[in-house]
Amino acid sequence: MPSIIIDKKPSGDYIRIVESYRDQDGKPRTKTLYSLGRVDSFSPESLKRMGQRLYELGGGNLKDLLGEQVSEEGRYNYGFLLVYRKILHYYGLDRIFQRITKKKKLTFSLTEVVLLLLIERLNDPCSKLGSFFHQEEYLGLAQVSLQHLYRSLDYLADHSQLIQQTIFQTGRDLFNQKLDVVFYDVTTFYFESEIEQEGALRQKGFSKDGKIGSTQVVFAMLIDRYKQPIGYKLYSGDLWEGYTYTEMVESLKKEYQIENIVLVADRGMLNTDNLQVTVDKGYEFIMGERLKVLPKPIQARLIDLDNYHHQWMSSSVGSEREPVKVRYTVLEYNERKIIATYSEKRAEKDRQEREEKLRKAELLLKNPTQLKKKAHHYYLKNTEGEKYVVDTEKIKRSEKYDGFLAIAYHAKGLSHEQVLDHYHHLYQIEHSFRTFKGYLETRPMFHWTNKRIQGHICLCYIAYSMLNHLQLRLTKQGTPLTEQTIRTHLSKMQVSLVKQADQYFYLRSKTSEISQQLLQAVAEKNLPDLFHKDQIIKYL
Fold first, then answer.
1. Which positions ≥6 away from 184 have C-beta within 8 Å?
2. The pTM is what?
3. What is the DSSP letter of 530?
4. pLDDT in tens, 452-487
5. How far is CA 125 from CA 116, 337, 526, in A?
C-alpha cells in the first residue's frame, strides 16, 4: 500500500511516495513510486491542497477531512472568573468567606456565591434572579441555588465592617502608597418605590439623582488620592449629608487608626461642628466654603478681582479631566484660611446654567401648578394673588458670583497651590460615585429590608474595590485601561465546548493584546488553546 515518508538528509528533508511489498523470499521491501523533492520547497497551503485532492481521489469525503464532524456544544466566558477571582484572593476575602461558611455551618460555599454575584455585577449588572439564570454562562463556577444568592447578602451585611477594613489594609500593603489625603463625599441611591416605613433605611429625602418622591438611602464614602476605598457608611435616606461627617471622621480613628491626614470635602460638610470634630481628632481639613453666606465685607474682598494677584494651574490628572487655570486670593477668617478662585471658564458655565434655568422658568410660568416647590430654583418669586414673576434682583445677585469658588482650609504644612490641587482632585470621588451608579448599576435597588439593602451595598463596594484594584495594577505596569475597555475584553475571553466523536474539548478563543495585559496585571496564566474537558480542574 502506498505511503508518504520523509527522508532526513544533511541537505534537508525530502518527501517520497513509496509502496511496501515482499520479495520472492518473503522479506518486506519498499519501492519509490514518486519523489516530490525537499519539504521546504512547498508551502503549507500547497501541501494541504495536494492532501485534500489525494483524499478525494481515494473516495473520501472532504467534509470529514476538514473536521466538520466537530460540533460546538456550548460557549462560556472565563475572563471575569480568572481575573477577579485572583483579586478576591489578593484581598483575602475568599478566606474570610470560607471562615464564615465554616463558622455558620452553611450548606453552600459563600465564596462561590459571592464570586458569582461579583462577576455578574462587573460584567453585566442585573437582579439576583438574573444572576441565577446567567451562572451557566461562566466556565469553572460551581452551580448555586437562588435562595443562597439572597442569603449571601445577609452575611455580607453582618460582616461589612470586617470586609471594609480588610480591603483598606490590604490595598495599603499591596501598593505601598502613603495615606496623607482622604477625600469624603456623600451620594444617594434610590429605589423604585415611594413607600416609607418607620425605622427603615429607605426614606424620602433630597435626591442627588433628581428622583423627587422616591425613597432612597444615603451613602457616605472615604477614598484616597488613587480612588482606593477606605470605608463607607449607610444612612437613612432623609438624613442631611452634613450630619454624616462626624461619624465618618470618628471612624477613621476608632476603626482604622489613621493619623495625620488632610480631609478634603465639599461645601456640604462645612459647619462649625464638623470643623471642630476634625480638629479635635488631630486632622487638618480642606473644604468648600459657602461664599454667598459669608459676611458681606468678606464677600466684597473675595469677589473683587483687583485682589487676585496669584495664578495656579492644576497638575495633570489624565485624559478624563482638562488642566484648570485660575486666579486666586487668600484671606484669614474665623480661625481658617479662605482661598477664593476665579476662572473665565467657570464664569461662562455659571452664565449658561442661569440662562437654562430662566428658559425653564418660562415653561413653568405656563404651568403654575408646578411652581410652588420649584419657583425659587428658577429665579421666580410669588407676588400678590399667587402670581409668579421673574425675580430680577435675584438674577443680579447671582451674576456677581459668576466664576468664583471659595475653599476653606486648616493645613499648616501645605502651600496655597497644594491646597488648590487637593481640592481639585475631589472630583475623584465624584468619578467613584459615577462608577457605582453607572458601571455597577447600584441603583435603582429592589431590596426592601435593611439587611438586604446593606448586603447589596457591600457587594457593590467589593466590586468597586476589585475594579479599582485592577486599574491600579494596569497603570502600574504601564497599560492603563478604562472601565469599559476592561469589561469589553474580559467579555471576549471565551471558550467553546466542542465534541469530536465521543470526546469533549474546550477550544479557547484568540487572545487579544489587551486580554494578555489584563492577565499579566494579576499575574495569571491564560488557558491553553485546546484542552480536554476532564482537565478543567487543572486550569480553573
1. 220, 221, 222, 245, 248, 263, 264, 265, 269, 429
2. 0.82
3. E
4. 999 999 999 999 999 999 999 999 999 999 999 999
5. 11, 45, 25
